[in-house]
Every structure is written in structure tokens, then in C-alpha cells.
Amino acid sequence: MINPFKLLGISDDVVNAVKDLGFENPTPIQEQAIPVLLEGNNDFVGLAQTGTGKTAAFGLPLIELIDFSSKKPQALILCPTRELCLQIASDIKNYSKNTPGASVVAVYGGANIMQQLREIRNGVQVVVATPGRMLDIIGRKAIDFSSVKYVVLDEADEMLNMGFQDDINDILSTTPDDKKTWLFSATMPPEVRRIAKNYMDNPTELTMGTKNTGNVNIEHEYYVVRARDKYAALKRIVDFNPEIFAVVFCKTKLDTQDVAENLIKDGYNADALHGDLSQQQRDKVMQRFRDRNMQLLIATDVAARGIDVNNVTHVVNYSLPDEIESYTHRSGRTGRAGKTGISICIINSKELGKIRQIERIIGKSFTKAELPTGFDVCEKQLFSLVHKVHNVEVNESQIDQYIPRIMDEFAELSKEDVIKRFASLEFNRFLEYYKNAPDLNAAALDERGERGERGARGARNSDYTRLFINLGSVDEFTRGDLLSFVCNNGKISGKNIGKIDLKGVYSFFEVENASVDTLFANFNDIQFNNRGVRIEKSGDAPEGGGSRGGERRPYSGGGERKSYGGGERKSYGGGDRRSSGGGGRREGASAGGGFRDFSGKPREGGNAGGSGRRESSGSGDRRRRS
Ligand code: AMP
């Protein structure tokens, strides 16, 4: 079968090089742009995100068009950041590794200029540069652009956002008039349009995806919280996504530093990236992130520009960007190279208008998501742990010698008991941490001035009490099963039951206030599959439901046998309590404990506090949405 890159017109040397990089098929942008650019006689405007394979889309044709027998610069690629500059240079070196005589230089600030000048003097055909340093070198008359045939303006909108307009003008004025200009931009604000108009002659325009539309692989979500709960909300999102590998954006360097420091104190694997760090410090942080030795990169917009790290699962907008256009760049850090990603905004209710503005600009709607409850997090972490235990690689030769002693230790216990104990080892710590965890979702007014769903439901169901039961979908219950189980055992009618909220290891259901006592009176010593079934009043009881805000009194319908998952759950204390009755315990710095580092090694003992969470490998991502 003919290699698909070859079919696009790429030569064998380059095809072999990209094969080595694992590129089997061109990405859509490559498929569209490569044949056009290979013609070499047109200006070009490509509306495309990073992460779509854009670098190869222009890099491969450039290599085909350059005369590598000459040592003069023939291609100049301008990009906004040092990060991106290094990335593009490295990519082009990789694509041209089998091309005799090919030489690429990266020209960027914050590094030794002498070395860059030396490389230029030795002769290069491709110059990849950030505008400031490029001008510096031009000012020193250290480069001759008279043979430049192609100029690529990559992330043009970002370069303009960063104020490089004049620098770009000055640089372009040193290149020949008949060069071809290829412009790539994620968005097309009027300033970029103006560049296209001023510098280009009837350019071929390609739009990869819809105009101004963010990457199609990215889902956009927002959470509405009170301003003071933002940090707790961030932690809860992270705890609910054990496999998260995220860039968290803050507006200021100070916020970035604060959030990172707090996360580190609380036992998370995080670090800050901002402009007050030295270049060396920034490189170190980025390397750790790239190597996945860090899970949460807390960054400012400027510092994070051009970050090209694959497999980022989430982008979190801890604060919304001032410039709405920046949202596209932020979210573009995830959903790269065909992967899916989630871009999350943690906002207060006053910022809903800004979400709508972003929606208009990116042409996509946000989903209003609800922060998971303490119960949800515990459940998620439990199953994450279960999956991890299930999938762990056993080192037979090492563990074998201990097996007899281990078996001895567990001799008295049934298989079920052993499993329960292993699961509880970590699970209990989450339970402890999340007991009394308040609801962090602000009952936001939407733009029409309507209360959020929960407020409405509370008002509607004031005649009902919300109850917890330690049975759920893992017991293969449907809502109907749960309804008949409760009615049969509690001797009440189905008409007295309201909404049933079926979860995994537990569920919630509403019972008419008038029937609650009957239910509890009859619901005694009930077993399911040999385990005790408990019902309790949920701290989330709707208005008038009786237990609101107070301590939940556990009702044990099943006596002493503790249930799976909730086995040692002494008091959930309103893990799902949506309205904490005020003054609820906030998740504070005491969270602490046992967060494994992202390389997968558990950090034993964790940090001070010891009650906290432990991250473990993931079960599916079940996010709650309203
Ligand atoms: P870019 O948009 O150029 O930043 O590319 C995003 C990521 O996709 C980079 O890690 C590239 O190595 C990768 N990539 C680019 N083209 C392909 C391809 N045809 N097949 C697989 N991966 C690719």
C-alpha cells in the first residue's frame, strides 16, 4: 500500500522520517494543506488550532520546497513563544533527519545569543524564531534574509495578542517582496485579517473545522460556585478525576503561585509556571510536566502559551481570561492529536454572561456541570482503587517468598473480608475527609433570573424527605427494583415515594414526610445478598424534610453487617448535603495525605494531616451534569 503521505506528494526521505515518528495517516489539516502548500507559489491562510498536526502541515512542504544544497536561510518561521519555537524547530529537525544538508536553528530569547549566532553563521536553511530575539539578531546584521522564499506566521493571533505586531512588520521588511507567506491562526480577529490583507496576495484560505470554532474534540463545561469556594471546587474536581493531567489557568502570577502552593500543601502533585520564574526554573517545571511527573500545572496565560504536551486531559479555567480570545488558546492545550479533552471553567454566578460570550466566539455550547458530592468522590475513588488493584502487575518472583506469611495472616478471613479490608484501607481516608463535605454548587441565577435546578427541586419537593440507602446500581438495582424493595420492606406504597436517584454503591430516594416514620419503623434488620441494608435521612433533605442541616442519625435497618463500599461508613454526615445549613466545614488545607505522585508510585504516609485523598488509577469518568 502506498504511504498516504507519499500520495500527498511527500518524498521518501521525509515519509520515512514521519513514519519513525509514528505518523501513519495525515491529520485532516495535513491532508488539506500539504498539496496546496507543495505548489509553493501561493500565500496561504490556515485557520487551525494547535494540536491538529499543524506543524507538519507546513513543515513537510517546506522541506520539499527548500534547496538544501544552499546554506542560506530560505524559510523563516515566526511564533509567539520560546516553547513553541523549540517545539517547531525540533519537529522540523525530525522531519528532515534523512534529508542531506538540512539545518534548522531555533532563535529565541532567554538563551545564549552567541550560540544562536554561531549556528546561523555555520549556515542554516530554516530559521524558527520568536520576534524579539529575531529582531535583535537582524539588528546585529548577523543574518541575511535575501534568499528567504517562505515566511510562516504561526499562532498569528497569539503573536498579535502579545504585542508583536511592530516586530513582525520590521522583520518582514527585511525579507524579499516575492516570498510567500503562510499564516496560521487559531482565531481570525480583525487584526489578523489585516495582516493577511497587508502582507498577502490573494491567499488560499483553508479553515480546519468551523471558523473560530474550538477543537471539536474538546468538551466545555462550567461549574458555578461561590467565589470563596473556588479552591475547594478545584480540589473536588481533581479528586473526582483520579487520572486528571491538567493545566490550570489563573489570571495573575500571584494567584498562580498561591494555588500551586496550596495544592502542594494539600498533598497534590502540582507546580506553578509564570513569568517571575527564571528560564531555568520554567524549563524544569515544564520538563516535569512533560514527563508526567507532575499532575497539575498551574499557569498564567503568557507562560503557558505554546505548551505542546500531549494527553492533557483537562484544562481548568480557575479564573476566566480577560481576553475572551485567550479561551481558545487555553482550551487548545487539551484535545490534541485526535484525543478528547475537557475544558472546565470555575465561575461565580456573575460570570455567566462571559460564558455566553465565549460560547458565541467558539461557536460551541458549554454544559453546566455540577460539582460532585463527597459521596460521588468517595465512590469514584473507591472504584478507581478497585481497578488499580485489579490491574496491578504482580511481581511473582519477588512476592512469592512472602505469600505463605501473608496467607497465614489472612487465614481467618474470607475472600470477601480480605477484599473489603484492602478497599477500605484507602477508601476510609476519603470518607473521613469528605464526611460533612458541603455542597459547593452555588444555586446560581441564570441569565433569565431563574434559580438553578436544585433550588427548584427543593421548593417543589418540600413535602418529601430525602433518604440514603446503601444499595445502588452495583447491586444490579434499577429504579424500579429499588422502589419495590423499599415499598415491600418499609410497608409503604409506591405513591409515597418521590424521586429516586440511583447511584453506584448507594442511592437516594424521596419519601413523603407523612410516611417516613412508617418506613423506618418497618425497615428493620433488612438484608440483601447477606448484607445489612441501611437507610438514613440524608443531610440533603429538601426544605421541611426534617433533617436539614443537622447531624444525620444513622438508622440501621440491617444491624451490624456493614455493607460493601460503605462498610466502615460510620457517618457520611451529609456527604451529599447540598445545603449545608450554613457554616459547613470547608475543605481546607488539612486535606492532606497520601496523594501518589503521578508516576504511579504511592507516596506513603502522605503529608501532614493524613486523612486525605489518594489518587489512583481511573475508573470511567462519570461527571454529574445538571
Ligand atoms: P501540532 O498541531 O503540530 O502541535 O501537533 C500536535 C501533535 O500531533 C504533535 O505531538 C505531533 O507530533 C502529532 N502529530 C502531527 N501529525 C500527526 C500525524 N499525522 N499522525 C500522528 N500524530 C501526529
Automatic annotation (TrEMBL):
**Which residue intervals are annotated with compositional bias (Basic and acidic residues) in the record?**
549-588
Entries under Pfam families matching the protein:
DbpA, DEAD, Helicase_C
Q: Where is the Helicase C-terminal domain?
A: 217-379
Keyword Hydrolase set for record: yes
In chain numbering, motif Q motif lies across 3-31
Biological process (GO) annotations held by this record are:
response to cold
What Gene Ontology cellular component terms go with this record? Answer: cytosol; ribosome
This enzyme's EC code(s): 3.6.4.13
**Residue span(s) of domain DEAD-box RNA helicase Q:** 3-31
Where does the record place the region Disordered?
A: 534-626
Q: What does the record give under GO molecular function?
A: ATP binding; hydrolase activity; RNA helicase activity; RNA strand annealing activity
Gene3D superfamilies with a match to the protein in the record: 3.30.70.330, P-loop containing nucleotide triphosphate hydrolases (3.40.50.300)
The record ties this protein, via PANTHER family, to: ATP-DEPENDENT RNA HELICASE DEAD (PTHR47963:SF8), DEAD-BOX ATP-DEPENDENT RNA HELICASE 47, MITOCHONDRIAL (PTHR47963)
Q: What is this protein called?
A: RNA helicase
